[in-house]
Structure of PaaX family transcriptional regulator:
Amino acid sequence: MREGSMAGGRSGATGGDAARDEGAVYEATGDELRTGPGSEVTLRPQSLMLTFLGNFVLGGDVCVYSGSIIEVFGRTGVGEHATRSTLTRMVGRGLLQRRREGRRMYFGLTDRAAAILRDGEHRIWKQGAVNDDWDGTWTLLAFSLPEASQRQRHDLRSQLTWAGFGPLIGGLWIAPGRADVTAIAEDPELGPHIRVFRSTADPATDISRMVHETWDLATLSAGHTAFLDRWSAFADGRGASDVDELAVKLSLLTEWLQIVRADPHLPIQHLPADWPAAVAEDVFRRANARVDAASRALAEELLETMPLRE
């Protein structure tokens, strides 16, 4: 990186804005590409862009020259047109800000984007994939919206799903632990229609059965297993040795973040004995260790930056 610095250490969870935005941001549409060692997986350029920004821009208080970004994304198989379109869409969504220097255009993070990216950092590096310290607490959220409020119902269900909730019965949703519902409660359209409680289950409740009935465990497990199929050989040091470490880093973290964002972080004692999350997380960390130093060196060399604020 010719000016400025890359992101610093891992940071903690963020507040309500991140919780409100992350689902919509990561579900955003866009051109798709297939990438990553092992069997192929579809990734969206915007998801790759968020990974790039979270790893090489967040915390540096810099903005990056568009030509540098195009060069980096070319290494992942994303063309110049798709990269420019992604940058433009993210400016329109309030995730990036532009700064012009002569004939060159630079892009930096908005506060909204930084909050979303810090939440991703927390999920990957601090929260982890396995919930082995659950204290028995559940967050219960009840809502009642008129049938005519279809958009609000969709928005609420989307936010609840991204926050780790599952539909318990009717308009009652449940999440393990003390889920942060601040963003929903403060939403002027949704807040007046919800009620939130913290509680523990009565001993008569079969929690394992409830977990199986409330969340789609087969799909969640399949996501971890597919990740293992794609990345185990690479994590073990097998396969091609002449990989592009920067492209692999972006693909690896983007895939893993998609998995952990979709996972409600259910208590491990109420999941099947062969639950694959711990093994998948180990593979992720070992695969990341193979490319982390080299990818950061490449980014340092390729990215031209300038201060975000003067």
